[in-house]
Amino acid sequence: MIKKTPAAAGAAPAALPAGYAGIHSGIVELLGAARQAAARSVNALMTASYWEIGRRIVEAEQQGKRRAGYGEQLMERLSTDLTAQFGRGFGVNNLENMRRFFLAYPVSEISQTLSGKLDNELPDEKSQTVSGKLSLTELAQVFTLPWSAYVRLLVVKDNHARRFYEAEALRGGWSVRQLDRQIGSQFYERTALSKDKAAMLVKGAVARPEDAVTPDDAIKDPYVLEFLNLKDEYSESDLEAALIQRLEDFLLELGEGFTFVGRQRRLRIDQTWYRVDLLFYHRKLRCLVIIDLKLGSLTHADVGQMHMYCNYAKEHWAYPDENPPVGLILCADKGHALARYALEGLPTKVMAANYRTVLPDAELLQKELETTRRLLESRVVRQPKKLRQ
């Protein structure tokens, strides 16, 4: 018979060694810095690759410029072939971004930038061969902002304004969120009109709490996930993830014809990324059912966004012989739950009425949402503090 040791018998664990807190915090800091460096490295190489792809597209277009529609044919064929071989990230829109990126940052400008970084190793007379002379690692030294930032900068039509935003983003270490906010608020124009430009620049460099980007955020950037061909299914919070899991199981258990399609499905409209929490297919209605979970109160913007999702899904996700998608907004605001179907976009009132008959009753969904949230919150409260950390 083997005699149990005190540890095996459930005795208290041994005391932590002296200085453990310092060791732990040091390792956390090291791993955080390593993740940030990895994200920066991937972003730089991705951006350099996309610039080079843009160069090759432009050169191919110029060689076939006498043929009508050559550019469109080239982009569509490239999109089809690259997507089949490398996965997401090579839609026509993104290829067009790469093309525009090269045109906004021509060879001569890249050569000049690299000349300063590489101690004038690239004479001006060789500037036209810069991309052929340099590896992607060397070319990546030019692009110090993430690709998502350059995509946002390409929306700025005025060259002076674009250079201003790029310079300020580099100088102030702006996140993409901060850059997007400054462009949206016309920070360049306001600074140009201001009598105290220095004060405006100082004020513009101040980041907000929501601007902070963690190493996980940088790695989960949708463009990075596309470039590495990784899945981008993740939730914003533990509560949201648990609610989605319960709702997914609940809808499938109803036995009303729901077929699971995906979770955290991303879509891009223009240069903005969105995601829907759950995507089902309803066999009887022969349509996609888009479900979006909100942890706050329902707003008009939420309703408009759902209609946008439905229109996008109808064009890009649904098959030609399927009925139009339907949206379901679930609001899990504390103390109040609400379920609302977005049926106004359906072609006929008869179809909308049929959908209401077949789909689960909204009150039933609200009751399940309230019950699930209370259950999850009670579990969190009952957990020992040590476990919740």
From TrEMBL:
InterPro entries: PD-DEXK-like_domain, tRNA_endonuc-like_dom_sf, YhcG_C, YhcG_N. Residues 27-190 form the YhcG N-terminal domain. Residues 217-369 form the YhcG PDDEXK nuclease domain. It holds the Pfam family DUF1016_N. GO terms for molecular function: nucleic acid binding. This is Cytoplasmic protein. It comes from Acidovorax ebreus (strain TPSY).
